[in-house]
């Protein structure tokens, strides 16, 4: 099954927003065995819209259009889409009532332009939008499915999850899919591929293995397709088990959750608590931890000790250490981690100190030099990194490596 | 002048990565008065690549292709691109030496697949890549310009900035462009548009005004095009001055920099220092501040006080306050801000405490309830917010509002 995504409107083309919707849609559709073949972002000119819809229809089975139908948009878009289907727009009173209620809820008068929100394509099934004002639409046309969704990510995702995906599953019902995940850390993608090459080679045609790499980790996604779900589950379990056995300790989780979620769940289950002491990562480690719902069950808090003074006053780093070795040193990192662990009363702490750039580097300690220390129940481990990215990339890499070091120490102390 | 962007490869279509490159390219090209008309992401099948290149050539003057030419990619891509131009690949020894040096620098043996990096299109001018291994290429073909760049954002951006943009400027030299920026805070996009409607209506055709909104702020970008740069500058200055006068105090900056950069520069210039005390934002305020190079000149550090215990021990929030009013309360926010300011010895501090969700809400304090306090040289200001997004959006909004409150107090105390 093939899909294409079309985004209409200037925001993406002008670079005013980054298109995060398409990647998310790509993942969701893949899990339904619907493969996105093309993503097209276009301006809202009539000829361009007609051209894109026609081309997508000729290649794909499912066409998802996001954006371009909100209240402030040019009428061109709506009129053009209606023209493409050789249909018109009709007023939907249920949508109108809903839009009015939303404005009432926020005690705001509804600008007149919002009346148009209730105009839906005459040939569409309305996908009711509980999360915003613009409704989604489902159109079946010449054997293809066209789905129109608002561009606001929060609304688009909820409409997909609650309205579109259940319908798509029904619509393409012959082929069933089951998925299995294996999250691995500490093995590079190509090394992992070598490690399991013979297993992968032995997979039957109905099985597909995808490698999804991130800094320091690779997620494997096993897709098994066929008719009989029970049989598919048996096969998927068996293959997953083979892979897990081969990969061994590097397997971190078999759930489709992030590494941070695995870390948090494990800490909670073992009653461990975490504190952070961040210099060069500037709060980013705390952020990625607290971005996960439920982090409060294991994360006590952290100190962003950007200045030396704060390293001393809030973490108890000794002034003589700073003088003798500098802020970017193994000694300072160790004292930061120990200080955070002690002062925040946790079983684990992680500390970073380095030069994120672009300024502040020296010959001895160039930009990208980062010391990371993790303090556990029994010991403190340290590591020196030399990253080669720009400021943002260096911060991201240091954050990822800090969490990996934390994980490794935790596993080691647990005796795994 | 019209441009299209083509990204080749499965990573974006499968949703394994978000395409941040295209938005950045869209901005850069816009500043050269080159308007991106379409962004196309495709798989690396021969027919798909040929179709996309042909279609783009028929519509655009400049076609930028990113990704698809790295060492691990299928040879299909390279062969197809050569076929499209009816050319072949030639070995470039300068590139080869450079690639070898990069591996030597990291003390790593060069995998054989990297020899292919030195194979460049025979009809291309090589855009030397000082930031990675894969070279960029510039091809002039049937009156159009094709630019091939690696997909790694860091490499792509450097190649664009240092190799491509200077060449594009020369290539399309008839029309000159001058740009002016006005960053405003605290006025909504539509309100701002009303405020300056008559000025905007009076603009001559050669002037374009773009509204670039973010949470709590709108950036105006004024583009003036024509032949005589001196005259264009005079006109741009005059129009910018008119707008600034009308908008008044909401104008924050006339430079093309982020709001965080404006805040940091202003604090540095006035010798002010900042501390953060974060509960629900979990380190995100510290992160957005420290993401800016030079933040260390005004940011002392912060406390992420996720647990009540840390609010007490590290910020001096009183236990009786927590008991009487709860962690999510005006009283706690005030004590957090005061505590951070005092303990970290700064002139300003900002504090957040709230319920980011999805759990933790109650009827009285639903998910999205956030108290923010800012402490300045003379006073403390507080504000209650009720956000309606998911966890991530609530954190982002709270972060943006906290910085806006900080800015307003700073300006007020400065007597602006």
UniProtKB/TrEMBL annotation, chains A, B:
Domain of life according to the entry: Bacteria
NCBIfam families named among the record's database cross-references: cinA_nterm, molyb_syn, PncC_domain, PRK00549.1
Stored PANTHER family: NICOTINAMIDE-NUCLEOTIDE AMIDOHYDROLASE PNCC, NMN AMIDOHYDROLASE-LIKE PROTEIN YFAY
Protein name in UniProt: CinA-like protein
Similarity comment: family membership: Belongs to the CinA family.
Domain MoaB/Mog: 4-171
């Amino acid at each position: 099954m093939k899909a294409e995504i079309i985004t209409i409107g200037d925001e993406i083309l002008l670079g005013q927003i980054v298109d995060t919707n398409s990647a998310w849609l790509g993942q969701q559709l893949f899990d339904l065995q619907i493969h996105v073949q093309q993503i097209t972002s276009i301006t809202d000119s009539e000829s361009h819209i007609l051209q894109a819809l026609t081309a997508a229809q000729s290649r794909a089975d499912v066409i998802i259009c996001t954006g371009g139908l909100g209240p402030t948009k040019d009428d061109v878009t709506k009129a053009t889409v209606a023209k493409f289907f050789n249909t018109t727009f009709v007023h939907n009173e249920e949508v109108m009532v809903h839009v009015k209620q939303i404005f009432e809820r926020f005690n705001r008068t509804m600008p007149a332009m919002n009346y148009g929100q209730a105009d839906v394509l005459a040939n569409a099934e309305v996908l009711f939008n509980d999360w915003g004002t613009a409704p989604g639409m489902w159109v079946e046309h010449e054997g293809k499915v066209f789905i129109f969704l608002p561009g606001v990510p929060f609304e688009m995702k909820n409409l997909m999850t609650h309205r579109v995906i259940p319908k798509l599953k029904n619509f393409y019902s012959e082929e069933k899919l089951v998925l299995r995940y294996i999250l691995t850390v500490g093995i590079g993608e190509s090394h992992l591929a070598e490690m399991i090459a013979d297993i992968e080679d032995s997979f039957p045609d109905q099985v597909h293995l995808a490698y999804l790499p991130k800094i320091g980790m690779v997620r494997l996604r096993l897709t098994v397709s066929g008719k009989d779900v029970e049989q598919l589950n048996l096969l998927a379990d068996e293959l997953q088990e083979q892979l897990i056995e081969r990969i061994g300790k590097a397997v971190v989780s078999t759930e489709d959750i992030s590494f941070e979620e695995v870390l948090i769940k494990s800490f909670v289950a073992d009653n461990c608590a975490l504190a952070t002491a961040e210099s060069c990562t500037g709060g980013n480690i705390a952020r990625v931890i607290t971005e996960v719902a439920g982090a409060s069950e294991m994360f006590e808090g952290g100190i962003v000790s950007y200045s030396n003074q704060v390293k001393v006053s809030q973490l108890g780093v000794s002034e003589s250490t700073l003088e003798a070795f500098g802020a970017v040193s193994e000694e300072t990192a160790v004292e930061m981690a120990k200080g955070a662990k002690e002062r925040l009363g946790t079983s684990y702490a992680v500390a970073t100190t380095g030069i994120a750039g672009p300024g502040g580097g020296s010959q001895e300690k160039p930009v990208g030099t980062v010391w990371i220390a993790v303090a556990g129940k029994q010991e403190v481990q340290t590591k020196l990194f030399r990253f080669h990215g720009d400021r943002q990339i260096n911060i991201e890499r240091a954050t990822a490596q800090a969490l990996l070091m934390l994980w490794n120490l935790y596993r080691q102390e647990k005796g795994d």
